[in-house]
Amino acid sequence: MPDVDKQLYLSSSPHIHAEQTTGAIMRAVIYALLPACAVSVYFFGLPALWVLLVCMAGCVAAEALCRKIMGREQTWRDGSAALTGILLALNLPPSTPWWLALLGAVVAVVVAKQIFGGLGYNPFNPALVARVVLLISFPVQMTRWSAPSPGGSGLDALTTATPLGEMKTAVMLTGQLPSHSGAQTVDYFVGNMGGCLGEVSALALLAGAIYLFWKRIITWHIPLSFIGSVVVLGGIFWLVDPARYPSPLFHLVTGGLLLGAFFMATDMVTSPVAPVGMIVFGTGCGVVTVLIRLFGGYPEGVSFAILLMNAATPLIDRYCRPRKFGYMPRKA
Amino acid sequence: MSRKPKTFHGGLHPPDSKAASADKAVEICPLPDEIIIPLSQHIGAPAEPCVAVGDSVCRGQVVGEARGFVSVPVHASTSGEVVAVEARPHPSGRDLPAVVIRPDGRDQWCDDLRGLGEDELAAESVRNKLCACGIVGLGGATFPTHVKLSPPPEKPIDTLIINGAECEPYLTTDYRLMLEDPEQILDGVRLFAGVLGRPRIFIGIEENKPAAIKVIDAACASSDIEVVPLRVKYPQGAEKQLIYAITGREVPSGGLPMDAGVLVQNVRTAAAVSVAVRTGQPLIEQVLTVTGPGVAEPKNLRVRIGTPLRHLIDACGGFNGEPGKIILGGPMMGTAQLSLDVPVTRGAGGLLIFRQEDVDPRPEGPCIRCGRCVSVCPARILPTTIVAYARNDQVETAETLGVLDCIECGCCTYICPSMIPLVQFIRQAKGAIMAQKRNA
Ligand code: SF4
Ligand code: SF4
């Protein structure tokens, strides 16, 4: 037998490891977002594709440059920067000019992520920070919505309003909801409405979400409590005054609720680590979303709600710990 | 089978990798040229050598005497000549005192070994016999069995659980034993029950071993022993998790199974108890699964204690490819070995060999707070948070977060996508806290 003693590895147990790496998780989330990307390009044409490409390339480049300047090892290969880019793009209007998308990418990666130390250390979801910064600084460009033109070039698309924006305006002016037909809900569901790239198709987002559950990337805790509390709270208002408050179904298929619940609120870095905490977090997101949508100054509340709950994450983590094993009163 | 499989919270499903050896009947491993009997083969004080170089010893003879209550003697596993009493490589990674025997090939039993008769099975004499025969828990913890069988009067034991879960991937020794020798296991179980005074008895077996469940079920048919199928999940065989799955009782934090009124024994320990009580033969052999991608022909071997690992690998046709990592025990909780001169001790249940290409040390990344370590932790503590504090030398905070409740199952490290060696840091923190407690 050869003398093998010298070539043996020594390390502490366990000696086997699950296949899933950080990079694999990031890649899986990217794959899950591809249907939504495709649908946005279908409805909004080349401008949407441009926004996607600029955001992605911008984030990856910003990450690489930033790490180089800081003299740290490169990390863009872990896929988190590219993922942030896609999420950012999905949170922008299709008509976003390239320079604004690029600015968003830099804000997301540099200000919201690398300044805190990079992946794992950022307290807020980088894509959402960038979106909100842009929304506040460039309100005009950030609320110019193109009407969808399925399969068309999208270059000469008309400007339109988002369903949520329409609702807010109508309620503010008349105290009444605009009139709706059931057919619109179906349109909203497949993505035929004005809005951010990733908001428009509930169908594509659900397909991606199913993939994430199947791959066990996310658990039900955050999405279910988020969506559930929007439906319940939104439903209560609707039952109280259906003329003034929209139905839970409308809440579900419009705006960034599904994108936020499945892909943004579930961002691991910025949400609680324990299942109990996740439920508190998701519920908080849902409640704040409804309150902003119905009573706030912005038509859409998902981004703000998630950022607000991101801020509460350390606190939630501290108070929502699982009950440790061995602390149960003895059963007979 | 209609019974609903039982389980616990947390845990995970590593690939079970048992196929290579599960269908191989236990073979007898030939004697090596040199037998190394370490004096430390159990938790508790090491034994004291009582033979000298040049002595000839018989099979089953005491070569190291027990020192203190939580200790058992160690025995020669074959007849031969003592050629050294010196420090030798030990599974713990250090060189520790051992009695080295050159076998004479006759394999002669000592002639004073005697079992107990049916009328001699009083609790005290059974305990003495088990101590004299060096019986320790063979599930890995190597706690002397006679001590476990002596609960203080204020902690009565009403439940006996026999652990046939064998949840570690790759290992198939318990499985083979259940298939090949159910009567011996059941005899041991009855002896335990006799000492404890009519407890409820459960035998827990993971559902992925239907053949074993069937055999044991049949053997238990006319008794009031309950065979409990368990969900396939690691670490189903961990003492506290097993107790919870079967009885719904939680062993209190910092407590022992007896605090929940339960005694847990591994199936192999039960078999060893039967041998010791019926024949008086001490624990001098062990069934080991030798397996993994790095060995030519995986096998289940009946091995004399003191056999160097090198010899086991030879008995299995040598290495397959370039060996990279050699593990005594299973892949989740076993210890990596640096030398093939290490001998088999009483606690070993498997020898696992990985090739160079199976060992790929991926670099550690930052914690992405994915929460996977939290959701798999059977102790339901927060590995990521505890390790963050422990790495900052804030062991007090780690302690308040429950670091001492960690059962070191390794689930957190297994699942962490960032390759953070969580359980290693947790072990260090536990060590630091225990050291502080001792000094205080
Ligand atoms: S599994 Fe690893 S990356 Fe995930 S929370 Fe735990 S320590 Fe962090
Ligand atoms: S913290 Fe301890 S008990 Fe929990 S998973 Fe890790 S090793 Fe197992």
UniProtKB/TrEMBL annotation, chain B:
Region span, Disordered: 1-20
Binding site for [4Fe-4S] cluster 1: 367, 370, 373, 416
GO BP annotation list: electron transport chain
Required cofactor names: [4Fe-4S] cluster
Subcellular location: Cell membrane
Gene Ontology MF, one: electron transfer activity
Role according to the record: Part of a membrane-bound complex that couples electron transfer with translocation of ions across the membrane.
Protein name in the entry: Ion-translocating oxidoreductase complex subunit C
Species of the source: Geoalkalibacter subterraneus
Encoding gene, per UniProt annotation: rnfC
